[in-house]
Amino acid sequence: MRDILAGYRAPVQRISARRAAVRGRAAPGFTAAVARACREAAGGSFSTTYLWQLRTGRRDNPTKRHLEALARFFRVPPAYFFDDEQSGRIAEELALLEALRDAGVREVALRAVTLSPEGLGTISDMIEAIARREADARRSG
To answer: How many whole angstroms separate alpha carbon 126 and alpha carbon 84?
Structure first.
């Protein structure tokens, strides 16, 4: 079984970074908070150490009850931990949600909702052309 929380490492780091930006220090206790929520959801033992062991691969055989608690906490289906296709789709959705948190991206997306398929194609072509131009400028700059 793969590292069951590998897909959440970057979001966990971003959450810590945001809290650090707001509070001016690292966000301690995230793993403890996840373990506590999972313990409450699973109705039994689920320690911070156990969660750390799962994240680092030192333990690799979580119970169904623990996987269901983790899935509930992260709001993903339990199959996420085993199904590469499903976990890939979820990772894409998380990336989209992260992008939509940017006000400029959200504004463009909301305006695009009313466009015709041809209009969406034109906007998509424009975005692609600008992205290529900016990538070329970064490489040469």
So the answer is: 33
What does the pLDDT look like over 96-132, one tens digit per residue?
A: 887 887 888 888 888 899 999 999 999 999 999 999 9
83: enclosing H helix or E strand:
none
For 87, which DSSP code?
H
Closest CA to 44 of 66, 75, 67: 66
Q: Tell me, what DSSP letter sits at residue 8?
A: G
Residue 128: C-alpha distances to residues 65, 108, 134 (Å) = 45, 14, 10
Count of C-beta atoms within a 10 Å radius of residue 38: 25
Task: Tell me, yes or no, if the pTM score tops 0.70.
Answer: no
- Looking from the CA of 32 toward its CB, the CA atoms found within 13 Å total 3
Give the residue carrying structure tokens 């970064």: 138
Look at residue 23 in the predicted model and tell me its pLDDT.
40
Query: SS3 of 15, please?
Result: helix
* Cα 74 from Cα 31, distance rounded (Å): 12
Distance CA 77, CA 37 (A): 17
